Amino acid sequence: MNEQSVAAAPAEADIHLIQRIIPHRYPFLLIDKVRDIRVNEGAVGIKNVTYNEPHFQGHFPAAPIMPGVTIIEAMAQTAAIVVGLSLNTVDRELLTYFMSIDNAKFRRMVVPGDVLELHVTVKRGGGRVWKFHGQGKVAGALCAEAEFTAMMDLKG
Q1: Pick the catalytic residue: 24, 59, 119, 133?
Q2: What is the pTM of this model?
């Protein structure tokens, strides 16, 4: 991305911009907003956790807990917004594929009513393969963390 594009990149993405960058839709769109976007560096995704989400029907009905894999997926979707804005792929078909997930740790349950913040930092990027460190936090408390690598595939 050239310097002018970097300067023009938004610092926040609402649901409409998110949907222009990544292909995910209900029931697998797991972020509601992305803030503090720094192209090629990182961002903070926001997930408002509600009981209406389909995974709570089976995980677990009497004690609903957001599955750890969906927390990591929400981190990856946040990372894909950073990549999309860094590579200027808005309104283009950018597909993101996990290549690895390392050092995943879960420290606290995420439950309906929580506002999950997904702090994602770019460790390596710029080409097709990017590496990230992500942390999920609720009210400042660390819930989950992982390092993950993804391959970006721009269609068309």
Answers
A1: 59
A2: 0.94
Q: 3-155: what fold?
A: Thiol Ester Dehydrase; Chain A (3.10.129)
Annotated domain spans of the chain: 3-155
User: pLDDT tens for residues 62-104?
Assistant: 999 999 999 999 999 999 999 999 999 999 988 999 999 999 9
Identify the DSSP state of 140: T
Contact 96, 125 (CB under 8 A): no
Q: In the annotation, is 59 catalytic? A: yes
Distance (Å) of CA 102 to CA 7, 96, 147? 32, 17, 5
Per the DSSP assignment, residues forming a β-bridge with 43 are 120
> ω before 27 within 30° of 0 (cis)?
yes
Would you state the pLDDT for residue 23? 95
